[in-house]
Amino acid sequence: MSDTEQRRVDAIVVGGGIAGLTAATVLAEHGYAVTMIDEYCGGGRLLTMGVVKAYPALEPSIDGPDLAARCLDAALDAGVEAFPARVVGLEFDGMWLARTTDGTLRAPAVVLATGRTMDVATVPGAAEFVGRGLSHCASCDGPLFAGQSVAVVGTSWWLATEVGELAAMTDRVNVLLPAQGPPGPQGAWAQVAGLANVHVVTGARLVGVEGGSQGIATVVVERDGESEHVAARGLFLCDDVMPSVPEGLPADLLDETGAIQTVDGAATAMAGLFAAGDVRAGSVPYLVSAAADGVRAALAASAFLAASAAASTNG
Length: 315
Ligand SMILES: Cc1cc2nc3c(=O)[nH]c(=O)nc-3n(C[C@H](O)[C@H](O)[C@H](O)COP(=O)(O)OP(=O)(O)OC[C@H]3O[C@@H](n4cnc5c(N)ncnc54)[C@H](O)[C@@H]3O)c2cc1C
Known about the structure:
Layout: E1 7-8, E2 11-14, H1 18-29, E3 34-38, H2 64-78, E4 81-84, E5 87-92, E6 96-100, E7 103-107, E8 109-112, E9 116-117, E10 134-135, H3 138-141, E11 149-153, H4 159-169, E12 172-176, H5 186-193, E13 198-201, E14 205-212, E15 215-223, E16 226-231, E17 234-237, E18 242-243, E19 273-275, H6 287-314
Parallel strand pairs: 1-7, 2-3, 2-8, 3-4, 8-19, 10-17, 11-12, 11-17, 12-13
Antiparallel strand pairs: 5-6, 6-7, 9-18, 14-15, 15-16
Flavin-adenine dinucleotide (FAD) binds near residues 18, 20, 44 and 161.
């Protein structure tokens, strides 16, 4: 699609994680023409997850990628168009314009469900080891370190899950925590922290990553004013802190962390713009919650589209 074509749909959903896929599905079920734009064709965080936890309806178990495939199938079956591209800018000229790496789409309503991400640049020395020992997915890359030592850093709610997966696949897991303990379910944490091959270092700040052509050899932490070198062939970053927000949104839509603020859990202060999932200020990092957010944003967008149509008919 060329940039001058600017194809129009009823609603654009940016982000194809569980929040975006759910929002797109519900909007399509309400009869709207919906395009879901995702830079990786959809799936989001689910693609880097092992066994899904805390999603009771799916017991006994399902892996993240399998749940992603089910959600994507449901969206396509409902009539959602999946558009693989990155949204590089959002503008409003009476209608929303989503500028993507593959042209521009227009719609009166947009749901932003772009999740959160880790900024590798915030970890000193880490960027040069991308693809050579640095990872953010235990279930994908853990097997590469069988019989070796790895380190895990971060403050993710789901840190215990990642550490548990790595402990089952590697020789030794060094967990480097800035505080005394991680957030998240403490029962799960107590279990993994007690494993024989899990070594927890608290009060540790990662200050460097060292290695060579063979990849990572050690990570350097600062603790009580002293530097410590921890041997590790793999470094797993488990920190989803930065909301992923496309360029172009007014700064006052965002809170101090960069997350999108809503007035009622779905609608932003701008007409036709909605937010769902991890990118929404005040969200909680659970799949069921992100899916519920998707439903709420879709219903709010649907009501907005219906009201706009009624206003233009009457006007
Ligand atoms: C390690 C880990 C394990 C977890 N395990 C569990 C668990 O077991 N159970 C549970 O309930 N929760 C778990 N969670 C939390 C859960 O994964 C998230 O809360 C949920 O997936 C958030 O969904 P989302 O749709 O908001 O965002 P995401 O899944 O992050 O999706 C956002 C999507 O938007 C896309 N995107 C971003 N910017 C753009 C752009 N500009 N243009 C186009 N596309 C864009 C991204 O590529 C991505 O596909 C875990 C989280 C982590 C980090």
